[in-house]
Amino acid sequence: MTIEALKSRKIAIAGILFNGDENPATESIILSKTGIKNLGRIGNEPYFDKNVIAEYADAFREVLEKL
Asked: Where are the beta strands (DSSP E) in 3-64?
């Protein structure tokens, strides 16, 4: 869902997780135009299952606990 759609529905947005290769110019524009925090980056995963999600949850736990 887009940030605009989330905001229009009054859904709180904790931040953005970018995925794949870094694109500093695009990411900078997204962050500056939305005012939303960058939580981090996930890799180009061939698939997502509960194990992959659990690994990322552990990796981002400290960032997420500060929200």
From this structure: 16-19, 38-42
Condensed to tens digits (0 to 9), the pLDDT of residues 31-57 reads: 999 999 999 999 999 999 999 999 999
3-state secondary structure of 41: strand
Report whether 34 contacts 3 (CB < 8 A). yes
Give all strands (DSSP E) within the chain, no chain letters: 16-19, 38-42
Distance CA 8, CA 2 (A): 10
The residues that bridge with 17 in the sheet, in sequence order, are 40
Cα(59)–Cα(45) distance, integer angstroms: 15
Its pTM surpasses 0.85 = no
Half-sphere CA count of 14, side-chain side, radius 13 A = 9
Query: What is the total residue count of the chain?
Result: 67
